[in-house]
């Protein structure tokens, strides 16, 4: 990878001393600096690291009207020695470009993504919290910059990265409701892109579920509402009669989660039976009724593993037993944590030391 030096304007007022690392609320504290790159005349340039702060855009900014915006979510961790380690950054750089292609946005060379991330994290390394469970959440994103009201793909774009220290994520088991009215993604749509608009469209159905007392939705396919796709903004996995089941990603409606991919890799390493297939709502209901559903959990960067303890299917609530200490979901969570904090071997070279 070619390295290049990014000009840095350091903040004159670091917020580090004002930040209470013992009570971090997700997404509230933002680190001192951000990376910015602009795309014009067919090329990325004007790379800079500057203090995190507001920026000016025109009211005619195309993103505000037509929603060309994509993002990534990833994390950096601090090990016992105080070194900063990032989890699978290359996979995020690659996925950003897959989202960009779907949204008619330009490709960002992975070397620029990775080098910018490295230099930003080096500068703000004191913002990476130490301690098991804590991490630095990283938000890379790209959006249209044209000041033009015609409906078309923008000619200019901005790519940015900023970061936010997050505390130990207490993964309280969640309750979910099988959603059969609203749709997150449909074939031919944008479900497999990490596009801002997918999130906007999911807010209303999620709010209805919350009003009914559920934490999240179990999304079903848009055509028949008979197959389970994802849970909230995570991929979802089930263990039924010893087999791990998760939706395949070929339909274009499933986000290709990096946590999903990592969990499947570990399952393979361990000889765990896996089936990448669509679980139908009736199969899920049947497995809940006859007690063959052993585990259900969401997988994603924020929580890594979100245990599901209650599922509403066809108007009826089913409770799942507490996962036992030897459960697959527990083992996979502690193994991923061990790798991320540099406590155990990293057999697939998922971590990069900054
Ligand atoms: C980001 C995201 C995921 C999880 O992806 P990770 O790379 O594991 O964080 C799953 N589903 C949706 C809809 C997402 O946006």
Q: Could you explain the architecture of this structure?
A:
The chain has about 350 residues and is an alpha+beta fold. It contains seven helices and 17 strands. The strands form two sheets. Strands 1, 2, 3, 4, 5, 6, 7 and 17 form an eight-stranded antiparallel β-sheet that branches. It has a six-stranded mixed β-barrel with strand order 8-9-10-11-14-15, surrounded by four helices. Strand 12, helix 5 and strand 13 form a beta-alpha-beta unit. Pyridoxal-5'-phosphate (PLP) binds near residues 259 and 300.
- Overall pLDDT score: 96
- Secondary-structure-derived class: alpha+beta
Radius of gyration: 21 Å
N- to C-terminal separation?
A: 14 Å
Our count of domains comes out at 2
| Estimated share of beta-strand residues | 25-35%
CATH superfamily of the largest domain: D-amino Acid Aminotransferase, subunit A, domain 2
């Amino acid at each position: 990878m070619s390295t290049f030096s990014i000009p840095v304007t350091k903040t004159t007022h670091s917020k580090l001393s004002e930040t209470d690392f013992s009570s971090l609320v997700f997404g509230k504290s933002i680190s001192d600096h951000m990376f910015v790159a602009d795309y014009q005349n067919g090329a990325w340039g004007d790379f800079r690291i500057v203090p995190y702060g507001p920026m000016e855009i025109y009211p005619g900014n195309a993103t505000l009207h037509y929603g060309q915006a994509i993002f990534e979510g990833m994390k950096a961790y601090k090990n016992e020695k105080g070194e900063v380690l990032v989890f699978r950054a290359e996979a995020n750089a690659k996925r950003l470009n897959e989202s960009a292609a779907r949204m008619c946005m330009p490709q960002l060379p992975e070397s620029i993504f990775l080098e910018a991330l490295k230099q930003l994290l080096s500068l703000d390394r004191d913002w990476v919290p130490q301690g098991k469970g804590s991490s630095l959440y990283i938000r890379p994103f790209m959006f249209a910059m044209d000041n033009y009201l015609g409906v078309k793909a923008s000619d200019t774009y901005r790519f940015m990265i900023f970061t936010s220290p997050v505390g130990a994520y207490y993964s309280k088991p969640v309750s979910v409701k099988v959603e059969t009215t609203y749709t997150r993604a449909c074939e031919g749509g944008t479900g497999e892109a990490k596009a801002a608009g997918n999130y906007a469209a999911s807010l209303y159905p999620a709010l209805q579920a919350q009003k009914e007392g559920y934490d999240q939705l179990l999304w079903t396919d848009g055509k028949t509402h008979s197959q389970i796709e994802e849970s909230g903004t995570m991929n979802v996995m089930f263990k039924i009669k010893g087999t791990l089941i998760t939706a395949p990603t070929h339909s274009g409606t499933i986000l290709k989660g990096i946590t999903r991919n990592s969990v499947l890799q570990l399952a393979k390493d361990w000889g765990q039976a896996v089936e990448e297939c669509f679980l139908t709502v009736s199969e899920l209901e049947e497995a809940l009724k006859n007690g063959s559903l052993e585990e259900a959990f969401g997988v994603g960067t924020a929580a890594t593993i979100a245990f599901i303890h209650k599922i509403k299917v066809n108007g009826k609530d089913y409770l799942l037993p507490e996962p036992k200490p030897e459960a697959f979901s527990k083992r996979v969570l502690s193994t991923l944590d061990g790798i991320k904090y540099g406590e155990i071997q990293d057999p697939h070279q998922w971590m990069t030391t900054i």
